[in-house]
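step: validate -> pass
step: tokenize input -> pass
step: predict -> running
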Amino acid sequence: MKKILVAVDGSEPSLKAAHLALELATATGAMLTAVYSVAPMMMPGEVPFTVVNQVLAAEVARGKLVRAEVRDKLG
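step: predict -> pass
step: emit ->
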């Protein structure tokens, strides 16, 4: 095994999964990558693009925070 991909969302179960993935990566010498996915946005057509862009930017920022939290907790 060379690479392990684990999805995280900030929840306790995803942090447990990340911890298990780290243990497996350490045991096998694999590279571990944590990802946070932003779901496609379904908004009514009358919502201005600036609002959509702000919501997307907030989700991307949250994803960066979640990944940083996972990195900090796993060491």
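step: describe -> The chain has a mean pLDDT of 88.
step: cleanup -> pass
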